[in-house]
Amino acid sequence: MKIREIINTIAAFAPLQYQESYDNAGLIFGNADWEATGVLLTLDATEAVIEEAIARNCNLVVAHHPIVFGGLKKINGSNYVERVAIKAIKHDIAVYAAHTNLDNVRNGVSDMMAKRLDLVNCRVLDPKKDLLRKLYTFVPRADAEKLRTALFAAGAGHIGGYSECSFNGEGTGTFRAGDSANPYVGQIGQRHTEEETKLEVIFPANLEQNVLKALLENHPYEEVAHDIVKLENTYQQVGSGLVGQLKEPMEEEAFLRLVKEQFRTGCVRYTPLRGKPVKTVALCGGAGSFLLKKARAAGADAYISADFKYHEFFDAENQLIIADVGHFESEQFTVELFYHILTEKFPNFAPLKSTIHTNPVNYL
């Protein structure tokens, strides 16, 4: 198996187009055309993890956090990032990261957190904009169903919980084929009138090439008239954080004890209790203080995330409980997510989970 097949599978689940502008997800070291000897899954690609990959004959490390986040001007081993780069390159270890793109997909990092608490009715807390496109095309009525089905198969036509969504209008098209044309209908040099269906479908921007391929391969015309328009609509399946409900309301202290247990953390930092039961819970893996206002607006009774600064705890305004479980603790189940993605696609392939505990934070 090529490394390309493995990383393409992860990218199909969490497209690189979904990462934030500041991020560096993707293949950081190595060659996608190398034969994969094995893959090691981890949260952080540390020196110890690279050594583990060498020992376990894995030439691909899949991590959540990009080991190279900003630019490297020198690689002389003066810090752990440079040492990882040297060791990985020296031993032909490819390193791939799925970071904020994995955070932003509906079934990504925050969903793994939600599963720990058995939340129901979950939705994206802060859906992203500018990720949807609309295709308009015109096709002879007799060929509309074939084309429509092909576009659906390519990933078009999903709106919320609905699939195979399209709009179809009937009208009349005209054209005149030139001398070099090979028209599907009509005669060269004569204006032709054809009863056509105007077909409209929405699709995610990352599937544009697939949708165009389906359009061109299944449309009967030699020249396919079509428009692709960028939409400002929010994409409800992609964005930061989640909000959902506990199956039954919980008393606050009992809820916090459950959070500590389920996230295997030595410490939960939290704001003053409000004396109200917890029912609606917002979550965000990693540093999530930027979503606090969204959590409040969503009516959350508690917001579980990490890396809150002292003064940011005041921003709860007694409207919810902030529960800071720690950065590593909020994202530790990402390894399980990687494992699920790969074994579902390649049931006979055995990715390895790193045995290295990469959390740099300890608790007394």
From TrEMBL:
Highest taxon listed in the record's lineage: Bacteria
SUPFAM superfamilies: NIF3 (NGG1p interacting factor 3)-like
The entry's keywords: Metal-binding
Binding-site residues for a divalent metal cation 1, renumbered to this chain: 65, 103, 327, 331
Molecular-function annotations in GO: metal ion binding
Pfam family name, one: DUF34_NIF3
InterPro entries: DUF34/NIF3, DUF34/NIF3_bac, DUF34/NIF3_sf, N-reg_PII/ATP_PRibTrfase_C
Any one of the GO CC terms: cytoplasm
Sites where the protein binds a divalent metal cation 2: 64
Keyword NAD: no
Keyword Glycoprotein attributed: no
Family according to the record: Belongs to the GTP cyclohydrolase I type 2/NIF3 family.
Subunit comment: Homohexamer.
NCBIfam families: YbgI_SA1388
PANTHER family, sorted: GTP CYCLOHYDROLASE 1 TYPE 2 HOMOLOG, NGG1 INTERACTING FACTOR 3
Protein name: GTP cyclohydrolase 1 type 2 homolog
Species annotation: Chitinophaga tropicalis
